[in-house]
Amino acid sequence: MAAALALVAGVLALPQYKKDRCFHHSECYSGCCLMDLDSGGAFCAPRARITMICLPQTKGATNIICPCRMGLTCISKDLMCSRRCHMI
């Protein structure tokens, strides 16, 4: 039992990013390379979760907001609100 829990904990602790800094989405496991407006560089970031602000897709080499995780769709339910990740 303890070995099974250790295995699960090890899987959950796997790195989410190929590296800290990136120049393009393909360099990140998540597929999202975000601009760091403070330093002027970019870093790998996780995709947006449910109800988080999102972009429908990645465009160019870097973004300011990530697209949704698998199974979620980036839509706006209200014309006055920004797009968010929702299950459809």
Descriptive account of the structure:
- One of its GO terms (biological process) is response to food.
- Its main location: secreted.
- It is a single chain.
- By secondary structure, the chain is an alpha+beta fold.
- It is built from one helix and four strands, in the order αββββ.
- The protein has one helix at residues 2-12; strands at residues 33-35, 42-44, 73-75, 84-86.
- The strands form two sheets. It has a two-stranded antiparallel sheet with strand order 1-2. It has a two-stranded antiparallel sheet with strand order 3-4.
- Strand 3 and strand 4 (84-86) form a beta hairpin.
- The model is unreliable at 1-14 (pLDDT under 50).
Terminal Cα span: 37 Å
Element order: H for helix, E for strand: HEEEE
Helix/strand-derived category reads: alpha+beta
Measured on Cα atoms, how large is the radius of gyration?
A: 16 Å
GO molecular function: enzyme activator activity
Subcellular location: Secreted
InterPro entries: Colipase
Keywords: Disulfide bond, Secreted, Signal
Q: Which features would summarize this protein structure in a list?
A:
88 residues, alpha+beta, two-stranded antiparallel ribbon, 4 strands, 14% strand, globular, disulfide bond
